[in-house]
Amino acid sequence: MTLRLKIILALIAVFSLYVSADWAIQRSAIFPRFMALEAEQARQDLQRCHQAISRDIEHLATFGQQLASIDAIRRNLQTPEDRRIEANVFKLLLPSSGLDFVAVLDSKHDVVLRTSRLENSMQSLLLEQFPEDRWPSDHPLLQSNNNVQSLDAEATPVQGMLMTKAGPLLVVACPVKAIQSSPSFLSSPCGTLVVGSLLSKGRLAAISRQTQVDFHIYPVDEESGELNSRLKNGEKCLNELIQLAADHDALLSTSPMLTEEYSSRQLKVYSYLADLTGKPFLLTEANIDRQISLQGAQVMNFAMGSLFIAALVFLVILLILLQYIVIGPLTVLTCQASTIGTTGDLTVRANIRRSDEIGRLAKQFDSMVQQVSNSQKRLLDDSRAAGMSDAAKGMLHNIGNVLTNISVLGESLTEQLRKSKLPSVGKLAQRIEEEDDLYSFLSTDERGKQFPTLLGQLAQHLEQQRHTMISQCESLSLNLRHAQQILESQRELATGASVMEATDLYELLHDVREILSASLARYGVTVNIQGTPLPSVLIDRNKLTQVLVNLVGNARDAVRDLPAERRQIELRLKTTDQQVIVEVCDQGCGIEPENVQRIFAGGFTTKPDGHGQGLHYCVLAAQELEGSLYAESDGADQGAIFSLSLPLHPAQGVAV
């Protein structure tokens, strides 16, 4: 699979996941909000219909109070001898006022007048709820007057709805106040005026026009044929409300308003209306067009389409840019790497391992910086005049460490050349020259048949030997450069200033391990580096390198004669707010408690062949680096830890 195809498939997968996630979020989080908003709007529409009925009842109450304040009615109710109220006046008033029923009662609840514009339905309209002679004192419309017990109390109208044979009736009972000139009637109202208006189809149509809602009502106790038909069609919400209406306590405590997704374009909302006694007697229904959810679905579909098109356009543009910016240059680089591999030019072998121009540029830039830094180091004068004796001893000690490594590397190279199978190539060539019929020798002779195998093994051995010698030569070159740096560092004594340069401590630890790689390998000592790369620190790199080489060299000498599992050295890199700490840990011979501080004194040593200059130089160099060096050990054969603390931002020195 080509790189181009991998990138295309990866981008398609990413965009597909994004589009799928977006679609899932819209369907699971956004669209339900549209539906919830739609349901809430539908409930508000049904509530507005209920409020419209309540306003009609309020208007009816206002009109009834105006009628109850007419002096003729009040006077007739106050005069028991002459209670004549003309029914014709109310019959003329009913059509123009929208009233369907009027009744006047005296203070004993006897009927003084009753009339209705529904001539043939008068009996059914007044049946049960409106007796012909005297109304019972517990009648719902008379509860306000019955509660008036004192002179200061004022009777208020009783208003609400009642179910009659003619249909739902909006009804108001207004107390008729006595005229002030008759003090015998001041303690209570002299009668009651009852007015009512049917909740007819015309009134329902007016409410629908006013609220712009398709509004319907259905009796609960006396189910009509239309309601039964709807139940048979399976409207579960309506059936549930009827069942709830049977349980008055449960219904009154919850006041339900249920919604039903009747179709993809219509939503139904159901609730109830209660009569004067507080019992539900009407089921209400509102049919709402599902404009919100339909528009929400359209918006989300448009958003998904736009997202898909945008993703497709972005994918095409990104592929074009990748072709010109990444894939094309990588193809050219691959061809160049193949050419280098064919010609065998080993001077650029490190670049062959890189896969892009940025990596090569970074490596070349680092090399250029290193060359410039080395050039500047060679131009510095001698640095210090005082302490030349100790400096010379420290230099000799450091040079001795380097020479030890160089000697080990030289011996290893000599041993590699001594064991080289290169002379075997000459023998094979001589054998081939001696054969007259080379083809027969290679194809039929048993010794000749082994030539390809021998040549392959010989080539493999020489290749391994070549890599080993190259690695050792690089280590030898690094040691020579370190020796050169040690010599150049002595020039700093003449100027009295240290050479400060940005140093990557993590990289420096690897350089120290590489400098000592030959002697470490000779004794089978493993160096493990723990920590992560840190920002560069401004410090004297040469001096710090010499300190670390001495510390790692001492740790090597401490473990070289121990079993293999203890020949381990750990280099730990830690940081605090103001310091960076380098720890050199070993499991070697350890330090006696009384010698933990003495080992840093000049001339003191615990080695049979030591001179006592290495650690003394290290502690002085640490102080010059504005840091400190101290040792820790639990005693003999318990290993040791040397901790070098350095400031993150040295205050002195010349930055390079």
Descriptive tags:
Beta-Lactamase, Heat Shock Protein 90, 17 strands, 17% strand, disordered C terminus
CA gyration radius, whole angstroms: 54 Å
- Our estimate of the beta-strand percent is 15-25%
Per the CATH scheme, the topology name of the largest domain is Heat Shock Protein 90
The biggest sheet, with number of strands, parallel, antiparallel or mixed sense and barrel status, is: 5 strands, antiparallel
Task: List low-confidence stretches.
Answer: 223-229, 231-235, 248-254, 344-352, 380-391, 651-656
Can you offer a commentary on this structure?
This protein has 656 residues and is α+β, with helices and mostly antiparallel strands. It has three domains: 136 residues, Beta-Lactamase; 77 residues, no CATH class; 292 residues, Histidine kinase-like ATPase, C-terminal domain (Heat Shock Protein 90, 2-Layer Sandwich). The strands form four sheets. Strands 2-1-5-4-3 form a five-stranded antiparallel β-sheet. A five-stranded mixed β-sheet has the order 11-13-14-16-15. Strands 6-9-8-7 form a four-stranded antiparallel β-sheet. Strand 1 and strand 2 form a beta hairpin. Helix 14 packs antiparallel against helix 17. The longest helix has 66 residues. It is elongated, with a radius of gyration of 54 Å.
